[in-house]
Amino acid sequence: MARTRSSSSSSSNRWRYCHPAYYLKRPKRLALLLMAFVCATLVVWDRKTLVREYEVEVSDLKEQINELRNMLDDSKDIKGSQQMYKSKREILEDPIDKERREKVKEAMMHAWSSYEKYAWGQDELQPQTKSGVNSFGGLGATLIDSLDTLYIMGLEEQFQKAREWVANSLDFNKNYHASVFETTIRVVGGLLSAYDLSKDKVFLEKAQDIADRLLPAWNSPSGIPYNIINLVEGNPHNPGWTGSNSILADSGTEQLEFIALSQRTGDPKYQEKVENVIVAINKTFPDDGLLPIYINPKSGSSSYSAITFGAMGDSFYEYLLKVWIQGNKTATVRHYRDMWEKSMKGLLSLVRRSTPSSFAYICEKNGNSLNDKMDELACFAPGMIALGSLGYAPEESQKFLSLAEELAWTCYNFYESTPTKLAGENYFFNSGEDMTVGTSWNILRPETVESLFYLSRITGNKTYKEWGWNIFQAFEKNSRVEGGYVGLKDVNSGVKDNMMQSFFLAETLKYMYLLFSPPTVIPLDEWVFNTEAHPLRIVTRQEGGRSQEDEQKPVIQFRNRRAGLLPGRD
C-alpha cells in the first residue's frame, strides 16, 4: 500500500508543474517561466530571420552569377564581332595597297642590306663604289635614321641587329664639329622614336648622352643656339658663311626632340633650353609671322636676309604647328599654334599662280621683292597646311585644305615635268612658261611624298596614293642600283651620283610605306613626326609645363615580316 501510494504521489507531483495554479502561488517561478518563454521565442524568431536573410543573399548571388554569365557571353560576342570586323577590314583593305606596301618594304630591304653589307656603322653608303662615308662624324646616321622604319615595317631581325650596334658600338665621344640641327633631327629624333616604339631604354640613354653634348650650343646671350658644336670639347659657334648668324631652321627645329626628351627622362633642362628660343623669337614676332633665315644669337633679332619656306627656313614653321600637336593642343602650347597661324597669313601673301596652267607656288621674299622660285624642300608645306587645317573653324579649314591640295599638285608636277619623272632641287616660274627646273639634281628627297601621305590620311582621296606610286616607280627605275639607291646629278639626263642619303630610309621610304598602310599604323592622333619623319608619341602638356603620360597606350608589337607593324590593340 505504502509503495502504491508513493508512486501515485510522485506522478501527481510531476503534473503539478503544468497546472497554472502552481505558478500563481509562486510568482518568482512564474517570472522565470515567462522569461524562458520569451528567450525561446526570440531564439526561434532569430533563426527564422537568419534563414530568410540567407535565402535573400543566396537569391542575390544567383542573380549576380547570372549577370556575370550574361556579361561573359556578351564579351565573347563582342570579341567575336571584333575578330569578324578585323577580318572584314583585312579583307576590305585594297589588295593594291597591300601589294604596293610590300614593294616598298622590299625596296627598304634592298637599301638596308646594301648599307649593312658595304657601310655598316658608318654614316652613309656610297652605292656605286660600295663603300661607306662618315658625313656626320661617324655617328651611324643611316643606322639610327632607319631604326623606326625597320620597326614600323616589322623587320624585327634587322631592328635587333641595329639595336645591338647602338648598345655596344655607338660612341659620341668624337672630336667632331657637329651640326646641332642635323644631329638633333637624325640622331636624337631617331633614338627617341625607337624608344617610343620599343620601350627599350638603351635608346633613351643614348639620346640623353648626345643631347647633353649638344646643350652648350644654347649658351648664347639671347638663348638662340649656335649651329655648330664640338661633341667632345663643346665650344659652340656658327659657320663663317652665315656672317656668324644662326640659321632660322637650325635654331627652331629642336623643340619636338628636346621636349620629348624632358618628358621621357623627367629632366626639364632640355625643354627649357629649346622653349627659351621660342620665347626670344616671340618677343619680336612680326604680324605676318615671316622671319628672315638669319638670326643674331647675341641680340636674338633677325638679320636682313631672305624669307623662304624652303632651305634654312622650312622646319621652323613646321615645328610651330607640331609642338602644339605634340602637347595635345592644350592651352599650355596654344602660343605655338597662334604663332603658326600668323605665319600662315604670311604664307598666303607669298602664294602666286603660274601661267598658263595656274600652278600654285610659294615665292621667296627678299626685302619687299618676291622671287618666283620654289624649292622642292618647300613641298613639305602642303602636308603641314593640311595637318594644320584641322585646327581652324570649318570655312578657314576648307580654305587651307584646298590650298594644300593645289600646292601638292604643283609639287607632283615637279616630278612629272622631267624626263626621269624625278623632281629637281628647285623650280622657277616665269610668265607664260609655268615651271622650269633650276638646280637639276635629285638627292632622293622625301618632302612631296610626305605631303601626299598627310593628304591621303586627311582627305581619303586615293589620287594621292597614285601619285605616290608613280614617284616610287620613278625611284625604282632611275635610282636603284646593285649597291643600293642613288640620287641623280641631273633629272633631265638621268646621270647618277654616288650617295644614298640617310633620309631616303628614314623619310622617303617610310612615308611611302605609310601612304599604302591603314590609318591605324602610326595614327596621327597618337603620334607626331619630327622633320626627319621620326614619330614621337603625343603627350598632353598641362599648366606649368607638366606632362601627362598615358600609361594605357599600348606598346606597338612586331608581327610577321609580311604583315609589317600594326598597333597592338588591333
TrEMBL record:
GO terms for molecular function: calcium ion binding; mannosyl-oligosaccharide 1,2-alpha-mannosidase activity. Keywords: Calcium, Coiled coil, Disulfide bond, Glycoprotein, Glycosidase, Golgi apparatus, Hydrolase, Magnesium, Manganese, Membrane, Metal-binding, Signal-anchor, Transmembrane, Transmembrane helix. The keyword Cell wall biogenesis/degradation does not apply. Pathway: Protein modification; protein glycosylation. Its main location: membrane. Residues 51-78 form a coiled coil. Signal peptide: none annotated. Its cofactor is Ca(2+); Mn(2+); Mg(2+). It is an enzyme of class 3 (hydrolase). It holds the Pfam family Glyco_hydro_47. It is a single-pass type II membrane protein; Single-pass membrane protein. SUPFAM superfamilies: Seven-hairpin glycosidases (SSF48225). InterPro entries: 6hp_glycosidase-like_sf (IPR012341), Glyco_hydro_47 (IPR001382), Glycosyl_Hydrolase_47 (IPR050749), Seven-hairpin_glycosidases (IPR036026). GO terms for cellular component: endoplasmic reticulum; Golgi membrane. Ca(2+) binds at T531. It is found in: Endomembrane system; Golgi apparatus membrane. The keyword Metal-binding applies. Its EC number is 3.2.1.-. Class I alpha-mannosidase essential for early N-glycan processing. Progressively trims alpha-1,2-linked mannose residues. Produces Man(5)GlcNAc(2) from Man(8)GlcNAc(2), but only Man(6)GlcNAc(2) from Man(9)GlcNAc(2). Has difficulty acting on the terminal mannose of the b-branch. Involved in root development and cell wall biosynthesis. This is alpha-1,2-Mannosidase. It comes from Trapa incisa.
